[in-house]
Amino acid sequence: MSRTHSNIVDRKLEHIRICLEKSVEMPTTTWFEEITLIHKALPEVDLDDIETSVEFLGKKLSAPIIVSSMTGGHKISRNINKAIAKVVEDLGLGMGVGSQRAAIENPELEYTFKIVREEAPSALIMGNIGCSQLLRDDFIHIARRAVNMIDADALLVHLNPLQEIIQPEGDKKFHGLTDRLRELTSAMTTPIIVKEVGCGISMEVAKILEKCGVYAIDISGAGGTSFAAIEKYRRKEDELMAAIAETFTTWGIPTALSLCEVRYATSLPLIASGGIRTGVDIAKAIALGADITGIALPVLRAYYSKGEEGVRLLLIRLIEELKICMLLLGVREVKELKRVPLVFSQKFRNYLQQRGIVYTDEVRRRGGYC
Fold first, then answer.
1. For residue 1, what pLDDT is reported?
2. How far is CA 181 from CA 119, 140, 158, in A?
3. Who contacts 17 (Cβ-Cβ below 8 Å, separation ≥6)?
4. Of the residues 153, 214, 271, 291, which has the fewest C-beta atoms closer than 10 A?
């Protein structure tokens, strides 16, 4: 294995270690707490009648939940991916793999990703490459290799400029990404989903992405895992860069606000991720306009706490919490969440007003299955 390949693998393992041992969640919040769902004391629905299933990318999910991209490229990552894939297959959910760059550059590592499709032959599976790969001359070939490696239903292209700038191995060039993304969507038959990694997506960027021809957007807003925090711990021996990383641990658009921005700007299918921690968070995200939600860090920690069973229990808990929340709102189907009354705090309303966003019920109901 070359030094470059080895560095990528070492970095991924270090990310996992830090996520397990350190406080890497943003000190700022998702802003979901600024939204109130109105309790319905006469729900007129039985718990057994509640249907949490949705359709996304032509596949039925038992609930609007996927495990967001995390890892790959090492035998430890293989074990994590294997456990998650088995659980999402059993529960009828979906997952995205971590960046496949290591395996694309070193085919000996492909097995750490291929295990996902082996364990989840019918589940919704999404491949993953970084925006920096789009600036390579062979970027379309790279994208096709990522898809073929795991027989992916879609390909995630992650946008992570903050992480790239702060990490010492990161790419520092971003000019030309929009044109390359447009070329990619034109060349690929596999749906392209653009994803942030914890800083959120604005309505201006959402409009650009829609014009580029992407199938969907994963907003991955602020309030969950902070890659700036991860890099702060990685660079603790470099006082200057650790201090710079610390400055940006609160950077980004909170998930609830990013969701409003993107849903206001486009009718594309949306994945809400970034600090999703409970079934109530999921219900609020769907009510705001998301089609499905993604969760990562709690899954990783559940795996390291109790293995495959820990992952299973976490995801079952989220589904059950969502069902209970739906009952307390008096809705039988997920799509009905987009019609329940919402109350925004004054702080939330002020943000929307300053951004020129008129968030009507019609806007909330845009998306993939409403």
1. 47
2. 31, 10, 11
3. none
4. 153
In this structure, the number of other CB atoms found within 10 A of the CB of residue 83 comes to 21
Q: Do 35 and 342 meet the contact criterion of CB atoms below 8 Å apart?
A: yes
Residue-wise pLDDT for 290-306, tens only, equals 999 999 999 999 999 99
What is the third-level CATH fold of 25-355? TIM Barrel (3.20.20)
Could you give the CA distance from residue 190 to residue 152 in angstroms, rounded to a whole number?
Answer: 8
Q: What percent of the chain has pLDDT over 70?
A: 97
What is the C-alpha end-to-end distance of the chain, expressed in Å?
A: 49
Query: Residues 8-66: pLDDT tens digits?
Result: 667 778 889 999 999 999 999 999 999 999 999 999 999 999 999 999 999 999 999 99
If residue 218 lies in a helix (H) or strand (E), which one and from where to where? strand 216-218
The secondary structure of 232-297 as a DSSP string is: HHHTTT-HHHHHHHHHTTT-S-BHHHHHHHHHHH--S-EEE-SS--SHHHHHHHHHHT-SEEEE-H
Every domain of the chain and the residues it spans: 25-355
d(CA 3, CA 169): 12
> Residue 55 in contact with residue 291, Cβ under 8 Å?
no
Rounded distance between C-alpha atoms, residue 146 and residue 151, angstroms: 8
Angle between helices 227-234 and 3-21 (to 10 degrees): 110
CA 235/CA 231 separation, integer angstroms:
6
| Residue type at 99 in one-letter notation | S
Please choose, from the candidates 201, 243, 235, 231, the residue with its C-alpha nearest in 3D space to the C-alpha of residue 218.
201
CB 5 within 8 A of CB 102: yes
Cβ pair 103, 120 in contact under 8 A: no
